[in-house]
Amino acid sequence: MSTTHSDPAAVKAADRAHVFHSWSAQGLIDPLPVAGAEGSYFWDYDGNRYLDFASQLVNTNIGHQHPKVVAAIQEQAGKLCTLAPGFAVDVRSEAARLIAERTPGDLDKIFFTNGGAEAVENAVRMARLHTGRPKVLSTYRSYHGATAAAINLTGDPRRWPSDSGSAGVVHFWGPFLYRSPFHAETEAQECERALAHLEQTIAFEGPQAIAAIILETVPGTAGIMVPPPGYLAGVRELCDRYGIVLIFDEVMAGFGRTGRWFAADHFGVTPDLLTFAKGVNSGYVPLGGVAISAEIAATFDQRPYPGGLTYSGHPLACASAVATINAMAEERIVENAAEIGEKVIGPALREIAERHPSVGEVRGLGVFWALDLVRSKETREPLVPYNAAGADNAPMAEFAAACKRGGLWPFVNMNRTHVVPPCTITEAEAKEGLAALDEALTSADAHTV
Q1: CA atoms of 368 and 250, how far apart (whole Å)
Q2: What number of CA atoms fall less than 13 Å from residue 141's CA on the CB side?
Q3: Buried b (16+ CB within 10 A) or exposed e, 281-306
Q4: Ramachandran angles phi, psi of 382, nearest 5°
Q5: In terms of Cα–Cα distance, which of 401, 380, 393 is closest to 180?
Q6: Residue-wise pLDDT tens for the chain (449 aa)?
Q7: How buried is residue 379: exposed, middle or buried, by Cβ count under 10 Å (0-12/13-18/19+)?
Q8: Is the dihedral of CA 339, 340, 346, 352 positive or negative?
Q9: Under DSSP, is residue 169 helix (H, G, I), strand (E, B) or coil?
Q10: Could you tell me if 370 and 224 are in contact, meaning their C-beta atoms sit under 8 angstroms apart?
Q11: Are 57 and 410 in contact (CB under 8 A)?
Q12: How far apart are CA 235 and CA 192, in angstroms?
């Protein structure tokens, strides 16, 4: 008979004996045994409580253990736990309807997956079949998932060990004024030059060979770089001109994270395909999907779509999505994310940046913010080198440890810390976390020049 443990040592021992962790050297990690979670917090077995400024993996948008979503999962489990994707199921249809109601434009058909990477895989497959073209363009500063096509589309170093170089993927530089690859001095210049670079890339790769351009509407793990005004509209125009499918990856940015239902809503641009996961149900049960335009959906009216998953539109996952979306609407959770970002997080982070020599730039919106940590504000040299590990990454490791000592669980990637709490965070909780962050940054300041 198997049992779960209330003894943290037993939990840790079982983990170390049997669990193989993602993105990790297995012998070098020390996972924290977690006893429980609620709202914006989780805690260990020793009673240490952490304010979750990472929203786990930027997915618990409605916080931990939201009672309405927990109840919906329990109720659905008592009624119908699972059913194959080929059947019409009330909760699956309702989840699709609620998502389609909120996606931009005519993205009214929903293909469900188990998560974001599978959503990207299927969006790319749809684009290639719709256009009959092989290539897909994505930016270097991006993350799109860890499955075969998604990892090739990913721009960050997690791609390197799996980069077959034969997946029909071409990378280009997206806009990022603070570290501009285009020597731009203003947002307008960055936008204009980034679009010119993309158009050149399209020309040299052959427009007739390009099926899709995929962009994180606001890039997440790569640094929360909000695109300059006009950029996404410019990409839309290039796609229209060359018959290229535009895919927005909203896996991280969607469902309230930026203070709108979708980040695309900030820019007034509608893609042809939109991928989602994470915030659609705060990760309570694995769920992702693709929202599909009428034109692309019509491609498969008489032609079978060659893709599917056993758990596509899983009833428990869909029940949690229905409850999540309804709770977000009823409790003004998206509006809360916008207000907290505008009135509390944004102003506080800009104030923190003035006080700390290690903070080079603050950027973001909603509850989706990044601090670019540097050795020098003048040179903008990153606090640690790109893709640093071991001793080279010590300054960031020290900063993360300081956060945790202060009861704050941070999201740290390369030379950045991201401020990405649940969309439900209160003003008091946000201020508590920002005070802990402020204090922890003194450890980063020690490494500045």
Answers
A1: 13
A2: 22
A3: bbbbbbbbbbbbbeebbeebeeeeee
A4: -60, 150
A5: 380
A6: 345 567 999 999 999 999 999 999 999 999 999 999 999 999 999 999 999 999 999 999 999 999 999 999 999 999 999 999 999 999 999 999 999 999 999 999 999 999 999 999 999 999 999 999 999 999 999 999 999 999 999 999 999 999 876 679 999 999 999 999 999 999 999 999 999 999 999 999 999 999 999 999 999 999 999 999 999 999 999 999 999 999 999 999 999 999 999 999 999 999 999 999 999 999 999 999 999 999 999 999 999 999 999 999 999 999 999 999 999 999 999 999 999 999 999 999 999 999 999 999 999 999 999 999 999 999 999 999 999 999 999 999 999 999 999 999 999 999 999 999 999 999 999 999 999 999 999 999 999 99
A7: exposed
A8: positive
A9: strand
A10: yes
A11: no
A12: 11
Neighbours of 37 (CB within 10 A): 17
* First-to-last C-alpha distance (Å) of the chain: 59
Three-state DSSP class for 301?
A: coil
Amino acid at 134: P
The helix-helix angle for 427-445 and 346-355 (nearest 10°) equals 20
Which pair of structure tokens corresponds to residue 289? Answer: 């999907």
What's the token pair of residue 366? 């909603």
Q: What's the one-letter identity of residue 62?
A: I
